Amino acid sequence: MADGKKEITIYDIAARLKVSAATVSRGLKDHPRVSKATKKLILKAAEEMGYRSNSFASNLRKKQSNVIGVIVPRLNSSFMSDVLAGIEKVVNENNYTLFISQSLETMKKEVSNAKAMLNNRVDGLLVSLAYDTTNLDHFEPFITRKIPVIFFDRVLDHESCPQIYIDNYKAGQDITNHLITQGCKRIVHITGNQLRNVYSDRFHGYKRALEDNNLEFDRELVIVTDLSAQAGTAAAHQILKMSPLPDGVFVANDICAISCMQALKKEGIKIPVDMAIAGFNNDPTSCVIEPNLTTVNYKGYEMGEVAARLMINHLLDKPGIQDSHSLILRSELIIRESSLRKG
Length: 343
Prior knowledge:
By secondary structure, the chain is of the alpha/beta class. It folds into three domains: about 10-55, 434 Repressor (Amino-terminal Domain) (Orthogonal Bundle), CATH 1.10.260; about 65-165 and about 300-330, Response regulator (Rossmann fold, 3-Layer(aba) Sandwich), CATH 3.40.50.2300; about 170-295 and about 335-340, Rossmann fold (3-Layer(aba) Sandwich). The protein has twelve helices and twelve strands. A six-stranded parallel beta sheet has the order 2-1-3-4-5-11, sandwiched between helices. α5 runs parallel beside α12 (about 300-315), α8 (about 170-180) runs parallel beside α9 (about 195-210) and α10 packs across α11. The termini are far apart. The relative contact order is 0.12.
């Protein structure tokens, strides 16, 4: 074994086996011109001597790394885990590796993630934007180097970057319409930073549904939060101070909706009799909370697959990315007991 001080090279393996360095190089790359027996000897010697392939050097020569970068706001959401599983499946099938980093919901961290991805010479970048990202300047170095950037779920318009998302406007409208059909007339909307398309579109869908049903929009009924579980509890206490009390609550994600619901129940609010509640995302916990939570389901796994496939097609110069600027995926309203006030 190597003593750890000196990196083993193909020349060391060649000297040991008394073959040329070119033969060792070909053998390690499974080249057809090297016999099976020689390949076996080369691999055995490489392993015994502690040889590590210098993929970075070979990437520099090939001008590609076979690595695709992914920047997500956070990894601890069931939706994002599904997206990453979908991306990984497609990427691995096409012999690419994934570099995953999280912005932890800040633009500052997203900028440093993007720099790290650029320095690691990723071939392409898939991004779901952080909570407070205001511009896309940090992705310009990729665009000028013709490294494809694709936004998914949380997107911003950029002429060079395709987007993959669901119709959040329609989903927000559908949920609000559903609450109205259940007799709700005073509906609170708990939302996130309006910079993000997902929250702004859901909010505008909510507003449109009120308008279509001749219900007055009241700014006091809109609570902007970071949509965390803590924010749900705080929003519940804000709701309880409203007069008259609202009879419906539409929250832009399930985690926040569930903690809001728990806090309201603790204060004696009967759900859905006193207040009908709906969330968004179909988080697994939406079926654990009692009553089960009405929500919107959209398939993270499918979104990940579509994003990765679009990226691979571009990297392999197949038609696709240039022709499609945005792809809108399906979503569906799942009605459960938390909002059913009428049989």
